[in-house]
Here is the input.
Amino acid sequence: MHDNMDDVNNMAGSFKEFTKNGKKILGAAFNYHRALQAAKAPKPENPVIFMKSSTSYITEGNKIKTPQGAEILEEVELGVVIGKKCKDVEELDAMLYVGGYCLALDLGLNNLLPEYRKKGFPWCISKSFDTSCPVSRFVDLEELKDPHNVELWCKINGKLQQTDNTSDLVFNIPQLISYCSKYMTLEPGDLILTGTGPNCGIIKPGDTISCGMGEVVCMEFDVE
Here is the structure.
């Protein structure tokens, strides 16, 4: 029994330290109704999923580093941390595999991403550069009672840039987990970024970007 409890505690520690132990960052693109409307784009039939490298993580106290000649686009998002290994999970059971949450910024290279999308090229370089996934501390399940109804906001140099609510998600958290788990095994510490609303902004060296998730958590990063 003692050994089993040690295993449970070790697993909990593993996913709570998701920036160190997580192997995958999966992002959902085109996943807010308002963003689709603003872009005059049709609703996708299935979630549009891309990957970011785990080396793109940074936490508060570190700076966002701009690759030479790059233009960075910010997207504020709710991040879902996987708590238990799962594969082929049904939507009805998917929330059982959520370990917790975080606030996240999905940063992309705006000078590259539109061209990649237009030509059908992979997004890897644009989405996975070092420091392209700033995240908050781990948020326990008890802290975020309803992840499908939480306000997200982002400010650049103190000016409000984005504000949205996760109630506007095209594909909700169970749908995202179920869909992803059909194609790849999700492991403790893996992160799913649930998408962003419209009005994403450009950040540049010298800027300060701050964002928040309701009254639960907020974070701030300098850009260099």
